[in-house]
Amino acid sequence: MKIISYNVNGIRAAIRKGFLEWLTITDPDVVCLQEIKASPDQLDLSLFEDAGYKYNYWYPAQKKGYSGVAVLSKHEPLHVEYGTGIDYMDFEGRNIRIDFDGFSVMSLYLPSGTNIKRLEHKFQYMADFQLYIDNLKIQIPNLIICGDYNICHEAIDIHDPVRLKNTSGFLPVEREWIDGFMKSGFIDSFRHFNKEATDQYSWWSYRAGARGNNKGWRIDYNLVSQPMESKLKRAVILPDAMHSDHCPVLLEFDSPYIQ
Q1: What is the DSSP string of 125-186?
Q2: Which end of the chain is more exposed for a tag (fewer CB within 10 A), N or C?
Q3: CA–CA distance, 115 with 257 (Å, rounded to integer)
Q4: Rounded distance, CA 168 to CA 164, Å?
Q5: Do 209 and 175 form a contact (C-beta atoms < 8 A)?
Q6: Out of 29, 50, 134, 148, which one is annotated catalytic?
Q7: What is the gyration radius of the CA atoms in the chain, in angstroms?
Q8: 90 among known catalytic residues
């Protein structure tokens, strides 16, 4: 089973940059998208079906051209859960989950903290999301949460940890939260296989040639609940995909339920 998480920073723009051709070649079973910035009526869904993703589910923000998540799957899920039931989260289209026999996959787009107001919003989201997942894990012990968490966990995950220590995305309180979230029962799948890997990032600013100079941040994760640890096979970052200011992150695991 191969899963990819990808903040596409606008699905329509990504398509124009060759996203669908790349997707066909890469051939994952499930794709979790973030920041789609479009609603289904603005897309030709047959393009995704032609690429092999007959089952595609979209959860846009109510604000046009903003946020939004989606999941593309080659396999039919048993259930699709749109949102969390928490109004302010769902207004911005930040969570969608598909359930299979034996495990579930969620696409998450956690807010950024671009200013004081949004940072307060982010902190509220982090706290409420933790409670939501604590309850969800009781019902769904085998849970994979893929997405843009907008937080670097450790100094190894950011190109300049000293100068950026007071920047949102690497604030001590944010790092403490994601550390606690992982310790509540989740495995950072990339670090599980790449414990000491440096200069491995999933997002670069568009400014000052950041991507060319690899001045990046690792803020995109495939977090896997602890009961699935023995099933994990591989996790890598795919920086050569150039459809967004983010790049995809990939996870492979054994699934006895889907062949």
Answers
A1: HHHHHHHHHHHHHHH-SSEEEEEE-----SGGGBS-TTTTTTSTTS-HHHHHHHHHHHHTTE
A2: C
A3: 44
A4: 8
A5: no
A6: 148
A7: 17
A8: no
* Residue boundaries of the structural domains of the chain: 2-253
Task: Enter the pTM of the model.
Answer: 0.97
Question: CA-to-CA distance for 203 and 217, rounded, in angstroms?
Answer: 5
Q: At what angle do helices 172-183 and 116-139 cross, to 10 degrees?
A: 0
User: What contacts 52, CB < 8 A, 6 or more positions away?
Assistant: 24, 27, 74
Tokens read off for 155:
């100094």
What are 49-75's pLDDT values in tens digits? 999 999 999 999 999 999 999 999 999
CA distance 195 to 192: 6
Q: What is the DSSP string of the chain?
A: -EEEEEE-SSHHHHHHTTHHHHHHHH--SEEEEE-----GGGS-THHHHHTT--EEEEE--SSTTS--EEEEESS--SEEEES-S-HHHHHTT-EEEEE-SS-EEEEEEPPP-SSHHHHHHHHHHHHHHHHHHHHHHHH-SSEEEEEE-----SGGGBS-TTTTTTSTTS-HHHHHHHHHHHHTTEEEHHHHH-TT--S--SEE-SSTTTTTTT-EE--EEEEEEGGGGGGEEEEEE-TT--SSSB--EEEEE--SS--
For 78-118, write each residue's pLDDT tens digit.
999 999 999 999 999 999 999 999 999 999 999 999 898 99
φ, ψ of residue 181 to 5 degrees: the values are -65, -45
